[in-house]
Each structure stands twice: as C-alpha cells, then as structure tokens.
Amino acid sequence: MAEFSMPVQQARARSRQQKILRAAASVISRRGYQEAGIEEIAREAETSKGGVYFHFPGKESILLALLDHTSGLVRGKVEQAIAAESDPVAKADAALRVLLRTLAKHRSLARVFAVEAAGAGPQFNARVAEIQDEFVALVREQLDAAVATGAIVPMDTAIVAQAWMGALDAVLLRYVTSRPGPGRRSLDEIHETLRATLLRSIGAPVPGAAVSVAGGSPRPTNSIETNGLERR
C-alpha cells in the first residue's frame, strides 16, 4: 500500500502549491509585490501562513515559482507552435503570436511580472533577464534559419530578435495595464498590426490583407481575459 501513497502525497502537495501560486498571483496583481503579505496570500489560498511556509520559504520564492511556472507554460506553447510550421519565417511569426496571446490570456500573471513585481530583488530580476534571453534565442534561431534558406536577406539576427521581443514587451505592457473602453484595441487588432510591422521589418511578406486598427472585432474563438494559472 505504501508504494501508492507517495504519488498521492506528491499530487496533493503539487495541488496545494498550485493553489498558493494562484492566490499569490491574484493578491500581487491587486496590491503589488511590496504590499502583498503572506497572511493575505494564505487567506486567499484557504490555508494558514504555516501552510504557505511549508511549501515556500518566503514571498520571493513564491514569485520565482510563479515566474518559472509561467515561463514553462509559455515556452511549451511556443515550441508547439514552432514545430507546427515548416517555413522559418512562419516559425518566428508563430513564436511571437503565441507569446502575445498566451501572456495576454494569463493577464494577471503578465501584470505581476511587468508591473507589480517592481522591487522584487536582484534574484528575480536576474531570472527575468535569463528567461527573456531564452525567448530571444528562440526567435533568433528561426531568423537564422530564414537567412540560411534565403527567405530573408542577411541581417544581424541577434539585434532583430531583441527588437522583436522589445516591441512585444512594450505592446503587452500597454495591453495588460490599460482599462477596457471604447478606445482600447482588441487583441486581434494588436496582434495583426504588430505582426505586419515585424514581418515587414525583415522584408518578409505579410500573409493576408492589411488590417486597420481603427475598426474590426476580435475573433470569437480567442479567449483573452482568462486570468490565473492553468490547471493541469
């Protein structure tokens, strides 16, 4: 019987950790990292402070766990999207598309990392930089392949990949911090305009007709307001 108890205990521990992380994302997105307290996180997670500390030594470790969870989630989706394409330019395009849509879908988490985690400390900042470099490298790899196949002209793909990610970061920051209203662009409008701009920046054709950001409506198949951690 004991051989079955360990997997069950591990599954329960993971479930409790995920619940704490979801609660932390909610509290930090509302109050900011500095003002968020372990007691409030514990209350939202329906556990005690001791229950939180059993899984995480402190608030910074919770934030780092959130960051690693989110980057793993996004990277998995990006790699799937890249694998589904055969053309290197399409692979780079897919990587940016999935990055934007996944982070916009998990808006509360994106807001935590983009805005509310200010002052979280050097360890957090260093990990953010590492993750950004990993995604830049993913995009650069596809751009290098596009140059090698002659799909685009030779260029400094390291700088271009950084520029692409910088543009994505800026647009995403604006999206997750803006309030819903008549002047707010839909995620579809944002994606199509950003996509066209980035593809033209490397001299690649833009599939489909140009999209105006002045009008239009989001495709109903996209759910962009879902917050929190994905349940697995």
Question: How would you describe the overall organization of this protein?
Answer:
- The chain is mainly α and 232 residues long.
- The protein has two domains: 50 residues, Arc Repressor Mutant, subunit A; 164 residues, Tetracycline Repressor, domain 2, CATH 1.10.357.10.
- The chain is 69% helix and 0% strand.
- It has nine helices and no strands.
- The two termini are 26 Å apart.
What is the level 1 CATH name of the largest domain? Answer: Mainly Alpha
Parts with pLDDT < 50 across at least 5 consecutive residues:
209-232
Largest sheet: none
Shape: elongated
CATH topology category name of the largest domain: Tetracycline Repressor, domain 2
Structural class: mainly alpha
Share in helix: 55-70%
CATH homology-level superfamily of the largest domain: Tetracycline Repressor, domain 2
Number of domains: 2
Compute the number of strand runs.
Answer: 0
- Please give the radius of gyration in angstroms: 20 Å
The helix-strand sequence is: HHHHHHHHH
- The DSSP helix count reads 9
**First-last Cα distance:** 26 Å
Can you tell me the CATH architecture of the largest domain? Orthogonal Bundle
